[in-house]
Design a protein that fits this description.
elongated, alpha/beta, 42% helix, 20% strand, Rossmann fold, single chain
Length: 651
């Protein structure tokens, strides 16, 4: 009889695949030896022969075969069917039963272990080869299917396979684990028993949802992102892709729907867009603040000049009101710069009395909390100053008190009108460690409180639990930014039904709560003896006012309306200048270029910046010169100029 042989994958022996490894389980020794010889002639490798349950398990574990030929009736106590059942727990090699008995009862028992085939004894080599070849190919295909199924089940994308009926009906026939998790997390009820996949039931929520629904119904490809709200109230986004599955004859019998939670990506994109918007707003605001501060300086300067020498109490009081109004305008520009986070340089050296600022803001905070809550103040008058400007402290207080007020409305039961908010300041001393002493500010409410899952994200930008349109998610993140600016810390303690406490701690500052810029003419007459000053300012009114004030104080002033004109004057007369007073924002060459020219051609001159806003990128320039922030008064400008000259001469 001519021997059959398995087909070869290549005529080149060096590229042929290794022979398939076959394990034989047969208790008739002669039959087992004959079967082994046949298998070798057919090109297979026989890894061994076992004749019992125990021998088979040991051989299988030792040799890891590609296929097992198993006689159903082997040496007792357990037969080949039980042996095959045990081997399935050790690996996935396919089992082919060898039997001389083909009765229904035996076949029924054997089918319980899902064998890959049967060979009835006696058999020829062609039958043996055909069966083994088919089984190995089928097992290879099954492995790919199992691998694909495992990949689908473990995918981080939710998948639903929908069967489409000829009458337009549909049925979800297969879903993976991520589909179920996403559906549960976002409040869906989709599953393998649904007629439609999750999010395709009910009314469309938005335009992209309708696009996806039409694609599903028309059996066309489609993709879109829909916004939905979790049961917790948190906003989320799901990217959905509809992909029809067509048969070889062109008929679409199934549709696969893929779901991807893109909430984090969308939140990041939203945050980036918000950041870019804030950057644009910040630049616009900075320009407005600069121009507005110039106007305020002109108002303060000429009003101050007009106020000098007026003895009439009524007219003097009127002018004093103008000066106070201009100073309130200064606070407004600082708030604008704080809003855009472009005020770090401007306020970096300001020292404030926390308790005094809270006391002055008391009325505003009471009006802010009313009528939802009453505010109680417990203030320690012995608190030392902290390195944070009053405007920033007010902003922190407003953010925390408004959040406490809103917590009253979320308390279960009838709307409260008697909620309590406590604002407390205290001085914290640490025995034997003066450097650890600090000033503490607490804002305490008896509102609804928060879950731990909320408190851990409460300072994240754009995070909010308030209804849409009621909050931006920027208040507490801005508060943390301001606290960090002062070198402080902020903590929150809260629990559902137990209210919330915000605890802020700031390092004490050894300085005084008032700055040198606030020294006014009340300190007495001020005059210098002929100091030569180059004044660089592009705003005509402000330059005229500053020049007049400096001249009145005894300075000999040379004016320049641009950076180029200032640089030319410095190159020509630099050695004669005692001080260069320049704005930072100028047409053409800016203040940085003016000071660079001064260092080269007027090395002995003092340098003083007058500015209402300076880009943080220019902060290295400010670190090397004296800075006078707009708006300022003429006495303040004259004193700061004289101080800068004295400091330069002493160095």
């Amino acid at each position: 009889m001519t021997s059959a042989s398995p087909p070869s994958g290549s005529n080149d022996p060096s590229k042929q695949a290794r022979p398939k490894r076959i394990m034989v389980v047969e208790d008739e020794a002669l039959i087992a030896l004959d079967l082994g010889r046949r298998l070798k002639r057919l090109g297979f490798e026989v890894v061994g022969i076992a004749d019992s349950y125990d021998d088979a398990l040991e051989l299988y574990a030792r040799s890891t075969p590609d296929l097992v030929l198993m006689d159903i009736f082997i040496r007792p106590p357990l037969d080949g069917i039980e042996t095959a059942r045990a081997l399935a727990r050790l690996g996935d090699a396919p089992v082919v039963f060898l039997t001389a008995f083909g009765d229904d009862a035996t076949v029924r028992r054997a089918s319980e272990v899902s064998p890959y085939g049967y060979i009835l004894k006696p058999f020829d080599e062609r039958t043996l080869l055909a069966t083994i070849t088919v089984v190995l190919e089928r097992h290879s295909a099954d492995n790919k299917v199992r691998l694909l199924a495992a990949a689908v089940e473990s995918a981080t994308v939710g998948i639903a396979l929908v069967e489409l009926g000829p009458d337009g009906t549909s049925q979800v026939v297969l879903t993976n684990g991520m589909y179920a998790r996403l559906s549960s997390a976002f409040g869906g009820a989709g599953g393998p028993v649904s007629a439609l996949p999750w999010m395709f039931e009910g009314e469309p929520l938005e335009e992209s949802f309708e696009v996806l629904r039409r694609a599903f119904e028309r059996r066309e490809p489609g993709q879109g992102t829909v916004a939905i709200t979790r049961p917790t109230g948190e906003r989320g986004w799901i990217s959905i892709t509809v992909s029809p599955i067509s048969r070889s004859d062109g008929r679409t019998t199934h549709v696969s729907v893929f779901y991807l939670d893109v909430s984090k990506q969308r939140a990041a994109e939203t945050g980036m867009a918000e950041s870019q918007r804030m950057e644009v707003v910040g630049r616009l605001t900075a320009g407005i603040a600069h121009d507005f501060n110039n106007i305020l300086t002109v108002i303060l300067t000429f009003t101050g000049l007009a106020r000098d020498g007026i003895e009439d109490s009524e007219r003097g009081a009127d002018l004093d009101e103008v000066i106070r109004a201009a100073k309130r305008g200064e606070l407004l520009t600082r708030k604008l710069l704080d809003f855009t986070r472009r005020n770090d340089v401007l306020v970096s050296g300001v020292v404030s009395d926390l308790t005094q600022v809270v006391s002055e803001a008391r009325g505003m905070l009471e009006r802010l909390a009313s009528p939802m809550a009453r505010v109680t103040f417990e203030l320690d008058s012995t608190c030392a100053p902290i390195r944070l400007d009053p405007t920033s402290i007010e902003q922190i207080l407003m953010n925390l008190v408004s959040n406490a007020r809103d917590a009253m409305t979320s308390t279960p039961g009838p709307v409260q009108t008697t909620g309590a908010i406590t604002v407390r300041s205290s001085r914290i001393e640490v025995a034997g460690a003066e450097e650890l002493a600090c000033v503490r500010l607490e804002v305490i409410d008896d509102g609804a409180g928060m879950e731990p899952s909320v408190t851990q994200h409460i300072f994240d930008p754009l995070f909010t639990t308030k209804p849409r349109g009621m909050g931006t998610g920027l208040g507490l993140s801005t508060t943390k930014m301001l606290v960090d600016r002062a070198g402080g810390t902020i903590r929150v303690r809260s629990a559902p039904g137990r209210g919330t406490t915000f605890e802020l701690e700031f390092p004490m500052d050894a300085g005084q709560a008032d700055s040198s810029q606030d020294r006014e003419a009340s300190e007495g007459p001020f005059h210098v003896d002929g100091m030569r000053c180059l004044l660089v300012e592009d705003d005509h009114s402000l330059r005229t006012a500053a020049a007049r004030g400096l001249s009145t104080a005894g300075f000999r002033v040379v004016e320049a309306s641009s950076g180029e004109a200032a640089c030319a004057a410095i190159e020509t007369h630099g050695a004669t200048f005692d001080i260069v007073v320049s704005d930072m924002v100028l047409p053409g060459a800016g203040g940085a270029q003016v000071f660079e020219a001064a260092r080269k051609f007027a090395p002995n001159a003092a340098l003083l910046v007058t500015t209402g806003y300076c880009d943080p990128d220019l902060s290295p320039v400010l670190a090397q010169v004296e800075v006078l922030w707009k708006p300022f008064t003429i006495p303040c400008l004259a004193r700061r100029a004289a101080d800068a000259v004295a400091k330069r001469r002493a160095s």
